[in-house]
Amino acid sequence: MIPYEQLFENNKKWVADNVAKNADFLDKLSRDQTPEYLYIGCSDSRVPANDIMGLEPGEVFVHRNVANLVVSIDMNVMSVINYAVRHLKVKHVIVCGHYNCGGVKAAMTPTDLGILNPWLRNIRDVYRLHEEELDNITDEHAKYNRLVELNVYEQCLNVIKTAAVQEEYIESGYPRVHGWVFDLKTGLLKDLQFDFEASLKKIQKLYDLTGFMKAQKNK
Ligand code: CO
User: Which of 19, 56, 83, 205 is the most buried (most CB within 10 A)?
Assistant: First the structure.
């Protein structure tokens, strides 16, 4: 284990290393942020957002929670999306899950997990929406991996259901939403090829918050 005091030493070394690499490092750090990406990922300590994408401070706005969920009544994630999309004008929103996600595993365990029950219930709902496909996977490991992917897919849809994303997209063509999975065994990111435009159209049939679909119909 790294001693607690060491963290401050690490921090000083991090500053020194970065300044040595780039003399403007602190100048840049203290300027206003203009990230083009919003990353929504799992809190899991093995999935460090900036590192896996090779991005520097200032380049990605990050939100992490247990099992990378986008829940419409969670003020935290909704505030993050709203701020990133409407004010920072990020061009891409990435929902990133990871295989072997403890949150996803826990969600499917028949145990009372206390305060985690309502949170992880969202994953059981993802299972219910894709029950037929998942029930047909006999290998337990493969089933969990697929559930991780489908959870990312459903959270991408949840991002699209927000007024912030719908309105900004109509106005500027951004942001676009992407679904990824991080593989702990290889360290590689997998793009799930989430079809943003088709999904937006599909979602807006029921979740249109802009009157856009109605206006299109009346044209
Ligand atoms: Co996780």
Answer: 83
